[in-house]
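Chain A, query sequence.
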Amino acid sequence: MTTPASDRRRGKSALLVLICGCAGLGPHWLDPGVRLLPALGMALFLGGYSIRTVLVPALSGPRSAFRPQHAGPAAAAGETAESLPAVDVVVAARDEQAVIARLVERIAALRYPLQQLRLWVVDDGSSDRTPQVLEELRRRHRFLQVLRREPDAGGGKSGALNLALKQLRAPWMLVLDADADLQPDTLERLIPFAEAGGWGAVQLRKAVANPEANWLTRAQAMEMVLDAVVQEGRLVHGGVVELRGNGQLLRREALLGAGGFNEATVTDDLDLSTRLLLDRQPMAIVWDPPVGEEAVLGLRALWRQRQRWAEGGLQRFLDYGGDLLSPRLSACLKLDLGCFFLLQYVLPLVAAADLLGALLTRSLPTIWPVSFVAFSLSGISIVAGCRRRGEGPPLPALGPLNLILGLLYLGHWFLVIPWTTLRMALLPKRLVWAKTLHLGEDPAAA
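Chain A, predicted structure.
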């Protein structure tokens, strides 16, 4: 059944398609001498902002303010079990028999006082051996708490996280995916950093754990590097940081103040990022320590995953557009959001309409100056990120072929965004939360 929220999203999506369609088609009926002027003006505007916000910080290296210092034995000598705050690690798990035991053992290996650490795993209606595996693990690990939901409980991952949230009492909540890989010292470095900085949320850099599985996983590893570099640059200049679901540390008071997790969206992390932003909760991203995760191995899985990401990303702009334009946000934050909305969502839609206009009028495309800015920004960010030192899984070795692969791979967003937006505009929406398959060390499980 179509909900009022999805009706509103459908109408707003249709309006966005119409506006971007006119912007892409219109220049083809202008005089040839001025056809490129709109795109050139937008390229100069977005290019200038990108150089200031992303490229300068990326080329100058990371800011120490956003890199927690290594807390080895000497650095942590002043910390005691009593001085470190309690942390609840929460995982929503559905059909995760291939990886859930490995995650529990990784949490057990963390160098954090066990009396201050509790792991909550929500078995979200699993149909494989996940319940049996969790029961065996619960007998061995006292810090492990298992909650269960019925398969038709609703709310997707957000519903599972909200179920756990009702039980939590610790001041900090670390949300992980079932395939997450943490370094043993992650919490003893991350928690003091978050408390000292007064952050409402901190996102760990996502690092692909299987970058050399095939060309697709290598490209996704470069994409994760790009994302972290861009987010660091935005943060340095007072822009917006977004949560990424896996490896997000949340201050419980900030999360409760924002209303918990939204069960009416397909990407809980992006929706929560927007509500925390509107609540003026400061958010940070750290390069090290990272959180490792599996990249998808095939194009079909990638297509499904990216459609969900695109839909959830657009949903938050459609749902909170009025608030994002209100005085609740500063002009600097509005400028940052506006520029990246143009690059992430408007540009692919306009480019699709531009290509259609070129075919209809037998003329050359006109939006290429903006596309050049977007791909240049991406390429420089990939180069800067891959040349940095990073803990965790190795970063891709950056040569000309890998860089070309990464840029060509990023072109898939010019298919995903128009297709997803058009589908949202034309078809009634039923919320469907599609999980990413995690294989662990057994690819045959696919």
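Residues 55 and 380 are 7 Å apart (CA to CA). Residues 63-78 have pLDDT under 50 and may be disordered.
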